[in-house]
What does this fold into?
Amino acid sequence: MNHPAIDMSGVGKTYRFFSLENIELKLPRGEIMGLIGPNGAGKSTTIRILLGLVHQDHGDVRVLGHPMPAGQVAAKWDIGFASEDMRLYESQTLGWHMQWMQSIYRNWDSGYAQRLLKRFGLRAEQRLKGISHGQRVKSTLLLVLARKPKLLVLDEPTTGLDPVARHEILRELTDVMRDEGRSVLFSSHNTQDVEQISDRITFIDRGRIIDSMDKELFLDRWRRLRLEAPFGVTLPALPGVIGVRQEGRMAIATTNAFNPGLPHAYEQTGARVQRIENMTLEEIFVANVERSREEVEV
Amino acid sequence: MSGAFAISQSDKRPMYFQIMDQIKQRIAVRDWAEGQPIPSIRQLAADLQVSVITVKRAYLELEREGVIVTHQGKGSHVASTPGLAVRLREQELRQHLEQATRLALQLGIEPRQLEERLREAGDRIAEKETI
It folds into this structure.
């Protein structure tokens, strides 16, 4: 039972105007992974391949030990998937949907479902036709969470929500992680949400994974050094530095491989290190995408 | 137990560092006594709504500093070092003094002048408290 929650290797899928290339993705059990990428980067396609909804052209996909898409039927009992385009019966109430889920899934936890109903401020007797976007998102999430799946896969769960609803959802996701046997994969372009709750972060752009790492490592390695150059000197990009911007004597060096020796190395060039700054995940993401696109073009 | 923890988005320090800081404060003011059990990593992560890995990092660094002790499978507790609370306060003072000294050096203030300034600051505080 010690299979990783998700294990994709060498996965590819070609469409006429878009292709996913060589996707490698691993999520150990008990962790949350945030999948970040611009619109059209391939987040949803990746998610649909690992659910077995889209079949890869090549490559190996295992979810909770089940090979996909072959093991799709067996795997689906343990996977909870929610996305914006999830279809609910508009003429029925949320309570009707809850009963329906309960009749299908053995693990359905009625007590938890009732608590979620209260915490999300939803009403079981309300018909789904005409409810707000936020209520709809929370309803689908309730229906998935109360099944207590071993793997939760959420496509853009916080998009378009107000701050209160967003926090309600982040709270439930971090609450799931009290159980170390459960895992979550969620995609988002809200980097702040991802930075807050993810253990692992994967950046995807133009059908390729450009970086995938433990979040703490990510935040540790990417730094900005504010430097004061000696008069008339243009500071070099030392090893590990991906770019230096300089105007007059003030320079900013950005690194994705920070180590304590780096400030020292700049001091050897005669520069004075004013400050070493942490970067937010958003800044790291943008810098990473720009760097990766430049590499592709070169 | 972890109700008064708060992670600030506008605080530029990393989240794990903020958690370390808040745990140290609790020990320094003796809300958390030496030897007392503290929340498990998963529990604190869920309470704070942050990732497990962030709290794990904070606990690892605190362990390295000798502030907490973790036993595999048994959870973590505040280190039973006598005088830990005082040591943490001392550490805070040392950091403030270093920061002040660094700033003074940038302004070209000699250590002797800085001593004089420190005395003046003490006088100002005493004055305020008598008013």
